[in-house]
Amino acid sequence: MPLVLLLTNKGKKSKQGEFCSTQEIIERYKRHTKDRVQPENQAGGQHLQHMQHEAANLMKKIEFLETSKRKFLGEGLQSCTLQEVQQIEKQLERSVSTIRARKLQVFKEQVERLKEKEKILTAENAKLREKFGGLQQRETPSVEKEGEALCTDGSEKSDVETELFIGPPECRVRRL
């Protein structure tokens, strides 16, 4: 007598005698798995229905927003009543005032940032003037004397300089 030993999904042993054929065992297995799959399919079906309902609601919302946008742009106002047009006008006025208020706020913030930057740059400029002011006063007399010496050597002055000189503009001696 052949004996078939089956294990259940819970780990229990199940003995099947010769009265059960392999075909019967497969049929039992299919019924069991079919029963387990159907509740999952039902949950999946409910989820699918929910998602379809959600998609339909979103499509309605998109359609409403597109219609509102067209009306705000002035398209398709022929079908609107006077009250609807006045309501659209009020909404546009509120929107414009909100935008203007935000724009004003952004400009004020920019002005404040620029004022802070101006203070920083003014302070930095003052430091640089202090640092290089003394240095410039020491160098200025010698540069002026050199310029006078170049101009008073009795040499010819050139009306047009064709050479490249780096430094402050001053009288140059024409080279032959």
TrEMBL record:
Coiled-coil-forming residues are: 104-131
Organism superkingdom: Eukaryota
InterPro entries the record matches: TF_Kbox
The UniProt entry's GO CC annotations, sorted and at most eight, read: nucleus
Tell me one GO molecular function of this protein: DNA-binding transcription factor activity
Where do the K-box domain residues begin and end?
48-138
Keywords recorded for this protein, A-Z: Coiled coil
Give the compositionally biased regions (Basic and acidic residues). Answer: 141-156
Q: Where is this region: Disordered?
A: 132-156
Annotated protein name in UniProt: K-box domain-containing protein
Q: Which organism is it from?
A: Solanum verrucosum
